[in-house]
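$ run holo --ligand "acetyl coenzyme *A" --emit tokens
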Amino acid sequence: KQDDDQLIIDAGQKQFGATTCSSCGMVYSADNPEDNFQHNQFHQRFLDSIKFVGWKKERVVAEFWDGKILLVMPDDPKYATKKAEDVRRVADNELGFQQVTLSRPTQAKTYLFINTERMVVGCLVAEPIRQAYRVLEQPDRHKDMTKDDFMERHRAWCCSTVPEQALCGVSRIWVFSLARRQSIATRMLDTVRSTFMYGSHLTKEEIAFSDPTPDGKLFATKYCNT
Ligand code: ACO
Ligand code: ZN
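-- output --
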């Protein structure tokens, strides 16, 4: 009897098609051989990439009940920069970025959020920028914004008394799909603001996001208005 029930449940899941793997978060169709293959290919590689074994030296920049944030600098030991790169590659893959190069690799700071299960569930790459070449805007405003509007916004930005080097560009921000909406991105960004520049706390306006995705825009808009 119990076996019958089990069979029915399995069949039901298969009919609905899409399954979300509870470990890697991939959404795939279990009854599709091609999808299954893709998932198998992805699963272990992904989990290996975000696995965190612990390091001899960890630059812990924030601690929480559900995890901690580590900062990785370009000159750090290979084990650290390698992990930062692996996770960045995972993020890039999901973001559809083709190239893994950063605009200023020698100055990029990578923030990794490690959860209590020793997985890197968040990654943020911050780089110093000369100018905020992109201003945060309301979603959907872009298209009907006149040139004057644009200049107005741009001018306000350019005329700020903020020193050039105080500006920080977020070129990547990524949170593991199964760990989203738990303020991990918010906490990473708060940590960037207090640690990116030695001795100064950056305001939300001093942070710029490059090429935000729809998710990124929703998050950034919320973050900057609160
Ligand atoms: N839809 C609507 N609102 C959102 C979303 C969303 N997808 N994501 C965040 N928000 C808003 C919410 O108001 C949220 O607060 P709430 O959960 O109390 O409602 C608030 O932002 C804070 O969200 P966090 O929990 O801090 O954000 P999270 O840890 O989930 O990470 C992120 C957000 C990084 C955008 C994540 O969804 C992600 O990794 N997406 C895929 C990768 C991506 O698109 N990254 C941005 C690329 S842009 C760039 O890298 C410069
Ligand atoms: Zn999986």
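-- notes --
The beta strands are 18-20, 27-29, 60-64, 67-72, 109-115, 120-128, 168-175, 207-209.
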